[in-house]
TrEMBL record:
Species whose genome carries this gene: Candidatus Portnoybacteria bacterium RBG_19FT_COMBO_36_7
Name under which the protein is recorded: ISXO2-like transposase domain-containing protein
Length: 95
């Protein structure tokens, strides 16, 4: 008997491999389960396992340790339309 790609999973290695291929192609689990004809909970579980392991690997190789705080800065893009006090169509509230 061959080893399973995913522990405690009754899916064949071929089906699990196809599901991994669909994950790489960014096919949602809800569509992949219908294509491969497996239970949606199995597909969602395997997608979760893949995401969990990717996150763990990323953390292992990350140059940062611990929590990282990000502020609410605005980067890039352009503001659309006029803004500020000089806007001619500004509605004054409370007058």
């Amino acid at each position: 008997m061959s080893k399973r790609l995913i522990k405690n999973c009754k899916l064949t290695n071929r089906r699990a491999g196809k599901l991994i291929d669909f994950f790489v192609l960014e096919v949602p689990a809800s569509k992949a389960d219908r294509i491969i004809r497996i239970n949606r909970h199995s597909a969602e579980r395997i997608y979760y396992i893949i995401r969990f392991n990717l996150a763990r690997e990323y953390e292992r190789h990350s140059p940062f340790k611990g929590e990282i705080e990000a502020d609410e800065s605005y980067f890039g893009g352009r503001r659309k339309g006029e803004r500020g006090r000089m806007v001619a169509t500004k509605v004054l509230l409370g007058t």
